[in-house]
C-alpha cells in the first residue's frame, strides 16, 4: 500500500521540468515553429468559412421553405357572409291563460294537426255565466231609468225657451238674467208700434167681394193724408149698421208712419168702395211674454226697447237638476254596459282556440285537470299545449357591423346542418333588423332567414351554418386572402426567385408592391390594380407562420 502511493510522485516532476525549459535556451528551434502555426490557423479559418457557408445555405433553405408561391389568377368569385343559427318554426303557439277552472273539453291529441280557430280547451264557466245574467239585468234597468228621464226632458224642453208670441218692441222687462221664475211669470211686454189696425164696417154687398190681402186706401181723420194698407180680416157674418143697413166688419193693416196712435181716427176704401163709417186705430199687436216653465233664467238676450219678431227666443230657463239626473243616468248605464262587456270578453277566455294552423307538439293537460295548476300526475304545467306551424322554417343570424351593409332582403342563402352530413338547403333573407346588440365594443345585427320549402329533415332546434350570397363576381383577378400582407402589400417574385419546378429558390429575389383590393369571399380577394395575371406572389405558409412565431417566442 505504501509503495503504490510514493513510487509515481518521484519520477514525474524531474522528467517534466527539463522538457519545458529546453526551448528557452535554443533560439533557432523556436523560429522554425511559426510557419507550422500559420498553416494551422489558415486551416481553421477555412474550416470555419466552410461551416458558416453551410449554415447560411441551410438557413436560407429553411427560410425559403417557410414561404409558398401564389400565382395571380382569373377566377369566378362568390362574395358571401357566413354565420350560424337555430332552426325555428315560422309560427309557434304556446297556450297561456289568466283564468283558472276545471277543463271540460280537450278535443285534440299530441301529434295531431289542428286548424286556426279549432277548440283546444273548454273550461267550466258557470259562475261567470251567472254573473253575466245579473249584469244584463243591470243594463236593462239603467236603460229604463235613462229613458224615463229623457222623456221628461223632451216634454219640458220646449217650455225652457222663452219666446215672443208677437213681433214688436219690448216696452218693459219684468226680470233680469239669473232670476228664478215660476210657470206663468210675466217676462216682458211687447208692443207693435210699427203697424196699426183700422177696423171699419163696409156694406155687406161690397164686403162680400173683398179678399184678404187686397189693397186698401186709408184716410186719417183731421188730415189730408192717405195711407196704403191691406185687408187683413173680413167678418164672416153680417151685422146691422146705422140706418138698418147690413154691414160687415173689415180689418185693414197699415204701416205706422209715426203719427198714428191708439186715439187716431180714420176711414178706408177697398176697390173704390168706401166704408159705411169710420173707426179708431189700434196697435197691430200688444202682448206679454210669459214663462211656461220654472227654473233659473240662465239666458236673457234682450233689453227694453229692443225689437223682437214672432217666435224669437229671448231667454232660456235652466233645468240643472234634470240635466244632472240625466248625466248620472247615462254614466250608470255606461258603467253597467262596460261591466257586461268585460264579463262577456272574459267568458271568451274560457274557450281556448288555436291561433295558428300547425302540429301539436305538446299536450300537457286533459279533461279534469285545472287549467291554471297541475296535471293529473301532480306535475306543474308551464304551457297546457304547444303548437308549431312547420309550413315555414326560419332562423336568425348575427351579422357583424362590418358586413351588415351588404345584406339585403331577398338575397339567397346556402344552408348546412352538422347533424345532416352531406345535405344542403337553400333559403332567402327575410328580414334585416337594424336594432343591433353591442358586446365589447363590437355591434352585431339580427338577420332572419326563411328556409326554402320547409324541408322535413330540418327540425326546430337544429343548429345550422349559413352563407348569405351577397354577389357572384365573374372572371376577376384574385389572390388567396393569406397572400396579401398588412397595408395591402404583396411580395412579388422576381426572376431567379423560383426554380424550374416553381418552388422558391431565392427569397431575396422579390419586391414588395402596393396593390388595390376589391371584393373577397372566404378564400380569395380581388386585385383591382398593382398586379398582372400570371405574376407570382410569395407569402408565409401556415406552417411557416407557426415556425416564425415559435422562433420569435424563443428569442423573446
Key attributes of the depicted protein:
12-stranded antiparallel sheet, Elongation Factor Tu (Ef-tu), domain 3, 3 domains, 25% helix, disordered N terminus, alpha+beta, 8 helices, 556 residues, elongated
Explain what this protein looks like in three dimensions.
- α5 runs antiparallel to α7 (320-348).
- It is built from eight helices and 33 strands.
- Residues 1-35 and 53-60 have low confidence and may be disordered.
- It is an alpha+beta fold.
- The chain has three domains: 71-86 and 390-555, Efflux pump adaptor protein, beta barrel domain (Elongation Factor Tu (Ef-tu), domain 3), CATH 2.40.30.170; 104-122 and 350-383, no CATH class; 163-317, no CATH class.
- Strands 2, 3, 5, 22, 23, 24, 25, 26, 27, 28, 31 and 32 form a twelve-stranded antiparallel sheet that branches. Strands 10-14-12-11-15-17 form a six-stranded antiparallel β-barrel.
- Helices cover 25% and strands 40% of the residues.
Amino acid at each position: 500500500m505504501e509503495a503504490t502511493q510514493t513510487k509515481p510522485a518521484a519520477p514525474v516532476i524531474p522528467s517534466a521540468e527539463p522538457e519545458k525549459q529546453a526551448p528557452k535556451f535554443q533560439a533557432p528551434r523556436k523560429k522554425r515553429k511559426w510557419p507550422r502555426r500559420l498553416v494551422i490557423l489558415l486551416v481553421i479559418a477555412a474550416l470555419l468559412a466552410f461551416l458558416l457557408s453551410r449554415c447560411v445555405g441551410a438557413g436560407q433553405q429553411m427560410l425559403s421553405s417557410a414561404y409558398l408561391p401564389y400565382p395571380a389568377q382569373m377566377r369566378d368569385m362568390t362574395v358571401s357572409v357566413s354565420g350560424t343559427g337555430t332552426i325555428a318554426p315560422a309560427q309557434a303557439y304556446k297556450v297561456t291563460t289568466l283564468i283558472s277552472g276545471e277543463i271540460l273539453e280537450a278535443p285534440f291529441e299530441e301529434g295531431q294537426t289542428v286548424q286556426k280557430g279549432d277548440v283546444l280547451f273548454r273550461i267550466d264557466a258557470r259562475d261567470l255565466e251567472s254573473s253575466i245574467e245579473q249584469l244584463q239585468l243591470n243594463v236593462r234597468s239603467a236603460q229604463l231609468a235613462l229613458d224615463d228621464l229623457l222623456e221628461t226632458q223632451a216634454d219640458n224642453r220646449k217650455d225652457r225657451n222663452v219666446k215672443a208670441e208677437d213681433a214688436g218692441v219690448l216696452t218693459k222687462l219684468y226680470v233680469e238674467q239669473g232670476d228664478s221664475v215660476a210657470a206663468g211669470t210675466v217676462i216682458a211686454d211687447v208692443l207693435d208700434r210699427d203697424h196699426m189696425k183700422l177696423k171699419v164696417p163696409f156694406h155687406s154687398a161690397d164686403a162680400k167681394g173683398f179678399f184678404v190681402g187686397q189693397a186698401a186706401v186709408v184716410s186719417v181723420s183731421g188730415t189730408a193724408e192717405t195711407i196704403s194698407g191691406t185687408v187683413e180680416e173680413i167678418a164672416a157674418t153680417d151685422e146691422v149698421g146705422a140706418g138698418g143697413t147690413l154691414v160687415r166688419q173689415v180689418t185693414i193693416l197699415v204701416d205706422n208712419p209715426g203719427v198714428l196712435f191708439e186715439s187716431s181716427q180714420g176711414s178706408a176704401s177697398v176697390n173704390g168702395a168706401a166704408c159705411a163709417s169710420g173707426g179708431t186705430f189700434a196697435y197691430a199687436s200688444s202682448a206679454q211674454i210669459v214663462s211656461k216653465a220654472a227654473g233659473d233664467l240662465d239666458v236673457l238676450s234682450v233689453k227694453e226697447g229692443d225689437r223682437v219678431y214672432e217666435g224669437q227666443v229671448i231667454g232660456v230657463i235652466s233645468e240643472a237638476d234634470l240635466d244632472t239626473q240625466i248625466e248620472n243616468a247615462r254614466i250608470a248605464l255606461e258603467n253597467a254596459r262596460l261591466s257586461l262587456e268585460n264579463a262577456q270578453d272574459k267568458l271568451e277566455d274560457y274557450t281556448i282556440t288555436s291561433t295558428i294552423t300547425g302540429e301539436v307538439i305538446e299536450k300537457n293537460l286533459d279533461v279534469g285537470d285545472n287549467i291554471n295548476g297541475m296535471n293529473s300526475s301532480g306535475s306543474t304545467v308551464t304551457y297546457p299545449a304547444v303548437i308549431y306551424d312547420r309550413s315555414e322554417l326560419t332562423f336568425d343570424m348575427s351579422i357583424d357591423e362590418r358586413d351588415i351593409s351588404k345584406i339585403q332582403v331577398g338575397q339567397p342563402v346556402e344552408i348546412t346542418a352538422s347533424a345532416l352530413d352531406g345535405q344542403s338547403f337553400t333559403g332567402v333573407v327575410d328580414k334585416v333588423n337594424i336594432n343591433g346588440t353591442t358586446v365589447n365594443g363590437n355591434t352585431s345585427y339580427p338577420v332572419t332567414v326563411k328556409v326554402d320549402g320547409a324541408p322535413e329533415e330540418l327540425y326546430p332546434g337544429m343548429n345550422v351554418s349559413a352563407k348569405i350570397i351577397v354577389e357572384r363576381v365573374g372572371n376577376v383577378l384574385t389572390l388567396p386572402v393569406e397572400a396579401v400582407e398588412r397595408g395591402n402589400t404583396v411580395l412579388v417574385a422576381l426572376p431567379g426567385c423560383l426554380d424550374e419546378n416553381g418552388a422558391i429558390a431565392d427569397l431575396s429575389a422579390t419586391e414588395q408592391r402596393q396593390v388595390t383590393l376589391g371584393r373577397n369571399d372566404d378564400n380569395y380577394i380581388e386585385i383591382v390594380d398593382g398586379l398582372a395575371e400570371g405574376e407570382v406572389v410569395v407569402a408565409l405558409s401556415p406552417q411557416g407562420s407557426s415556425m416564425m412565431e415559435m422562433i420569435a417566442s424563443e428569442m423573446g
